[in-house]
């Protein structure tokens, strides 16, 4: 009887260990799939756009991928030297009526902050939304002070 109890305890332990390893493997696999899927994700799985920031000889450029986001639901603002891009990516209005077999896209509100250099020419900042990519061009200004500014998206 003692031998049977030890066998049951060992079986319960190994079954529990295998269940935990399987669960861990699924979580890691899902995480890695999210990391390499090409679309960002936040801590709770909401939409987080991907961005590139670079500079040329005469301007800084910020490019933000916003697939499925309407220009009208996107806002740009500069406050105390920080450019903020915020908006919302919405689901289909009748999404609850769909019977999904696979669902990978993320939705929800988002915001990104970019600290600007000291020498941005505030009055000549341009923003354009084309093909799901928001491009913000921030010309060099040679050391002028930063001010607050709303930026219109064309």
Describe this protein's structure:
The longest helix is centred in the N-terminal third of the chain and has 34 residues, at 2-35. With 154 residues, the chain is of the alpha+beta class. Mean pLDDT is 78; it is low at 31-43. The termini are far apart. The chain is elongated, with a radius of gyration of 24 Å. The chain has one helix at residues 2-35, and strands at 40-41, 47-48, 51-55, 59-65, 74-79, 82-89, 108-115, 126-130, 133-139, 149-150. The strands form three sheets. It has a four-stranded antiparallel sheet, with no helix packed on it. The chain contains one helix and ten strands.
Structural class: alpha+beta
List the quaternary state of the chains.
Answer: single chain
Q: Can you count the beta strands?
A: 10
SS field, number of helical segments: 1
Biggest sheet, open or closed, and with what strands and sense? 4 strands, antiparallel
Order of helices and strands: HEEEEEEEEEE
Strand line-up of the largest beta sheet = 3-4-9-8
In terms of DSSP E residues, the strand content is 25-35%
Q: Poorly predicted ranges (pLDDT <50, ≥5 residues)?
A: 31-43
Radius of gyration: 24 Å
Task: Round the mean pLDDT to the nearest integer and report it.
Answer: 78
What is the end-to-end distance?
80 Å
* Principal-axis shape: elongated
Helix content: 10-25%
